[in-house]
Amino acid sequence: MKVTRGWQRRIKDIFLMSGSRQRSRLKRPLWIILLVTFVIIFLITAFIYPPTTSTACYIFSSRDCTLFNQPSVFAARELSDEETRSHVVIREILKTPPIQSTNPKIAFLFLTTGTLHFEPLWDKFFRGHEDRFSVYVHTSREKPVHTSPYFIGRDIHGETVVWGKIPMIDIERRLLAQSLLDPDNQQFVLLSDSCVPLHNFDYVYNYLMLTNVSFIDCFVDHGPHGTGRYSERMRPEVEKNAFQKGSQWFTMKRQHALVVMADNLYYRKFKNYCKPNMDGRNCYADEHYLPTLFNLIDPGGIANRSVTYVDWSEGKWHPRAFRAQDITFEFLKNLTFIEEDIHFTSDRKKRIISGSCFWNSMKRPCYLFARKFYPETLHKLMTHFSNYTTI
Ligand SMILES: *[C@@H]1O[C@H](CO)[C@@H](O)[C@H](O)[C@H]1NC(C)=O
Ligand SMILES: *[C@@H]1O[C@H](CO)[C@@H](O)[C@H](O)[C@H]1NC(C)=O
Ligand SMILES: *[C@@H]1O[C@H](CO)[C@@H](O)[C@H](O)[C@H]1NC(C)=O
Ligand SMILES: *[C@@H]1O[C@H](CO)[C@@H](O)[C@H](O)[C@H]1NC(C)=O
């Protein structure tokens, strides 16, 4: 901005000068020649000294300015070969329009420890919409027992898993890879076994399908549970000011899921240097990798918020988990109407970042799903489901 304003002011000055003092004396053709000369010099200068701010980039250059959008780290230093390769691939994926499926589906990716207690509730949620979703289950501890036909046979197989040993981001990447095999899957939703739906299927389907953004949570927490987890060993690709935080419960459009498949550079940084109990820090890659990656490569393409509600207001290590006595129609209805998104930080002032939720630039309820619910809430949730999910 500063650069442009400076230029504008300078151009104005020149115009004013030529207007007041010289125009009367100069013959018209000479005045035009001067102006044209000035414009040519201006353009040559812009060509020789490429613009280094995003506004200047958009004004002067026909090239892609995406990389200028966010932390100036890209503009400030030369990229390594690997980084260049990575950016070329990612940029190409982001520019390619998604394949038009005649039968677009949402892939629901369930990350569970064992049996999914809320299967009967999800069964109710899915019923009647059979051609518009697919289910994938990754279980990390014990083999689940399925009761709903939508879940039977949907466990993902593959390489042998050492239970509880594979890092969360690897599980997420596995689930994404499996679900990307089906070209009809256009949106990808990560859910846990303590998640429940807050709206009916049609509402969720339209909310996700009719927008261009991925709902990936992303904010800056300057406290010990935010940038305090950052390791200098992630430099230079991930500088401290690029390090973001966010809940792992995402929804992602297909292009973004492909980016996650294609990215090896940032993934490796986080896998190697964002681990619990490392260099005196407890870093959890699943809370930092995706927010940081997408904030770097496509900041305008993510909503910076999650569509999965969770209650951190108690300020404990874990979010509040709801019990059967908490579940009333009014409580559930309240959750479906929340229009403010709240982030609790761990900085000294325990800053709270909040803002309205927007969907395609319109104010809309923030949440499609909610966690964490104890299995004992199932019965009450089933009773109220048809009522609280109607808007
Ligand atoms: C999504 O992006 C395309 C292309 O940029 C645009 O034409 C379309 O209107 C967008 N859709 C929504 C729902 O924002
Ligand atoms: C998300 O945050 C980034 C800055 O961190 C901003 O550039 C982007 O516009 C935000 N996205 C939306 C949808 O507001
Ligand atoms: C629901 O929201 C209303 C208005 O914000 C509040 O007064 C009420 O206590 C809430 N009820 C429950 C059960 O959370
Ligand atoms: C749901 O709503 C219907 C009609 O408004 C009502 O008759 C019924 O009692 C409600 N069920 C529950 C569990 O609140």
UniProtKB/TrEMBL annotation:
An example GO CC term for this entry is: membrane
Instruction: Give the membrane topology.
Output: Single-pass type II membrane protein
Q: What are the protein's GO molecular function terms?
A: glycosyltransferase activity
Pfam families the record matches = Branch
Keywords on this record? Answer: Glycoprotein, Glycosyltransferase, Membrane, Transferase, Transmembrane, Transmembrane helix
What protein name applies here? Core-2/I-branching beta-1,6-N-acetylglucosaminyltransferase family protein
Coiled-coil residue windows:
none
Where are the bilayer-spanning segments? 30-49
InterPro entries (alphabetical): BC10-like, Glyco_trans_14
Where, subcellularly, is it found? Membrane
